[in-house]
């Protein structure tokens, strides 16, 4: 065992770094992270079904839809359009992966987006 104390993060530096990041960039980064996590849970990665968990995917897709719905007036169409396209793709992938189909408007995130059709 090492006698070296664990290094603590420099919270002052981290706070300054966060303070310099525009809100739009934070929103987009969080959205992309939610999209990536949802894709993994939907089995859309190279590992395929290894990490597939539709219950977890539903939560992530719904969180993404809520974030995009809440921030639609805060981020430009330049940022929002591709995120909405990605969300719709994830919603359709969820529908395809589900053994039991949700009623239109009841799928993940559809309370924010309305029913999603292919």
What does this structure look like?
The chain is mainly alpha-helical and 118 residues long. It has helices at residues 11-19, 23-41, 54-71, 77-97, 110-113. Helix 2 (23-41) runs antiparallel to helix 3 (54-71) and helix 2 runs parallel beside helix 4 (77-97). The longest helix is centred in the last third of the chain and has 21 residues, at 77-97. It starts with 10 loop residues before the first helix and ends in a 5-residue tail after the last helix. The mean pLDDT is 91.
Task: Name the features.
mainly alpha, 118 residues, flat, 60% helix, 0% strand, 5 helices
Spatial separation of the terminal alpha carbons: 57 Å
Structural class estimated from helices and strands: mainly alpha
Q: What is the helical fraction, as a range of percent?
A: 55-70%
Note the run of SSEs as H and E: HHHHH
Number of helices: 5
Instruction: Based on Cα principal axes, name the global outline.
Output: flat
Query: Which radius of gyration do the C-alpha atoms yield?
Result: 18 Å
Described by strand count, sense and barrel closure, the largest sheet is: none
pLDDT averaged over residues: 91
Contiguous low-pLDDT stretches (5 residues minimum) are: none
Number of strands: 0
* Percentage of residues in DSSP E strands: under 5%
């Amino acid at each position: 065992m090492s006698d070296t104390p664990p290094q603590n993060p420099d919270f002052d530096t981290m706070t300054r770094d966060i303070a310099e990041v525009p809100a739009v960039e934070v929103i987009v980064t969080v959205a992309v992270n939610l999209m990536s996590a949802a894709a993994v849970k939907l089995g859309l990665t190279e590992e395929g079904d290894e990490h597939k968990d539709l219950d977890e995917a539903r939560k992530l897709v719904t969180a993404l839809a809520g974030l995009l719905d809440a921030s639609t007036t805060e981020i430009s169409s330049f940022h929002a359009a591709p995120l909405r396209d990605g969300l719709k793709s994830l919603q359709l992938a969820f529908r395809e992966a589900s053994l039991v189909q949700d009623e239109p408007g009841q799928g993940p995130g559809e309370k924010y987006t309305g029913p999603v059709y292919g």
